[in-house]
Amino acid sequence: MAQGRGSATRCLGVGGLLAVCLLLGAADAATHRVDWSLSFSADSWSRGKNFRAGDVLEFNYDPSVHNVVAVDAADYYSCGSSGRAYSSGNDRITLGSGANYFICSLNGHCGMGMKMAVNAS
Ligand SMILES: [Cu+2]
């Protein structure tokens, strides 16, 4: 899975002399892999990363013991889980602009710290 973002230039040689170049937009969405587990540390994971609306978080985890619930701020702090739940073990969730909150609602894991908040510009 590609990580990070950046503009890319693709050139097609034509007859060895001319080149046709397409400048792909610099706003390519990035995919950020999340190894979602009880030992996941949102603080250390997010350090040094920049997030933009449209970026994708790819949550990888064992679905027999974890899930991902996209929650609001109140549920994030209280470990409520009224938001949309994901449970495939390999969930790709697109970030919206502003704060995005995720918790694991299974087995009391949120209360043990299995949660994160991501701010997307
Ligand atoms: Cu869990």
Automatic annotation (TrEMBL):
InterPro entries, per the entry: Cupredoxin (IPR008972), Phytocyanin-like (IPR039391), Phytocyanin_dom (IPR003245), Plantacyanin (IPR041844)
Signal peptide positions (record): 1-29
GO MF annotation terms: electron transfer activity; metal ion binding
Pfam families: Cu_bind_like
Keyword annotations of the record: Copper, Disulfide bond, Metal-binding, Signal
CDD domains: Plantacyanin
Keyword Signal: yes
PANTHER family cross-referenced by the UniProt entry: BLUE COPPER PROTEIN, PUTATIVE, EXPRESSED-RELATED
Full protein name: Plantacyanin
Species of provenance: Digitaria exilis
